[in-house]
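haha ok so turns out i had the wrong file open the whole time. this is the CORRECT one, sorry everyone. sequence first:
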Amino acid sequence: MHKVSRLSGPGGLLIFSVAVFLAIPAFAQWTPNRLAADGSELPRTPWGAPDFQGIWNNSTTTPLERLTSEEQALSREARQAVIAATRGTGAGWLEQAGNIERESLIIDPPDGRIRMAGQGVQRLIDRENARAGRGEADSWRDRNNWERCISRTLPTAMIPTLYNANYQIFQTPDHFVLLMEMIHEARIVPLDGTPHASGDIRQWLGDGRGRWEGDTLVVETLHFNGKLDGGDYQPSHVTPTGPRGSGETLRLTERFTLIDANTIDYRVTVEDPQTFAVPYTAAIPMHRSAPGVTLFEYACHEGNHAMVNLLSAGRADEQQAIDAAALVSQQRIQAGHPGVREPAVPFAPIPDGGR
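then structure:
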């Protein structure tokens, strides 16, 4: 099932640069191999805690945020120019399960909508304007942190996207470890009451600490660095489901609850007063993978040439690169943001499947 990740970009990353595309046909969707819900008694570790250990998948085509029909129409219209410029390029070998019985992964606010703070919106506008006159690949800084194989960051890394929505969990009495297949990052969360590190220490995945509330594992993470959204100007290729703030005031509260042997009720509450007017909470079921499923190495920079090729293509035709970046920026604005809603990139799933 995971061969999809070896047919795409660096380490499995699907990279789309308007200036350098060849037309790639869209292929059939590949459904992850997962176990059905199991009503048997919850598995427990030798020390009595719920046993989360194993490989899990949270893939779904349900969007993070509920979009109105008008926003969906704007997105379809905005991406027409990009589709034309790339000769119909689409994503290949998608690995996604179907919808869950909700219009969005966000359950709070109840309407499934993210409410941006005014300063958060202004930061996005300022960053979009700062892109003016820049090409798709004037520098490696024009590509997002995911493409640069640095980090998918949080909460992005826990929100399913087009493929590789796989995680492996390990447990000891004092630690909870969650290994994410995509970008091969490991979150190591102490459970022993150790206080958070100093706020002077800022990390891509923040500083997480866990505790048990009954049979629910609660993980609180703070002290993220200030570069989660890319920096002072908008990356030319925005990460789907990406954070919309810098990360400086971000705080996450995650809850892992084993509701049967093969299902985790995962919920994450996102607070960032510089970015969001109110916190939001997403609920994303995680399903145990079938026996024989394993994680593959996501060797993002090792032996690949993606960034070199991106930068070289930008130098081959500077004006085309600038025009391409301007087209993508225009697309974001026409679709109702910059960055306030999910990017209207050509391969983004739009309800009703229309182009």
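Residues 2-334 form one domain.
again sry for the mixup
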